[in-house]
Amino acid sequence: MASQNDFNIPISENKSVDEGFDYSQRGQWLRAAVLGASDGLVSVASLMMGVGSVKHELKAMILTGFAGLVAGACSMAIGEFVSVSSQLDIQISHMIRVRAANQESEREQLPNPVQAAAASALAFIFGAIVPLVAASFIVNHKVRLGVLVAAVTIALAVFGWVGAFLGRAPVVKSCVRVLVGGWMAMGITFGLTKLIDSCRL
Question: What is the domain partition of the chain in residue ranges?
Answer without folding.
Answer: 36-191
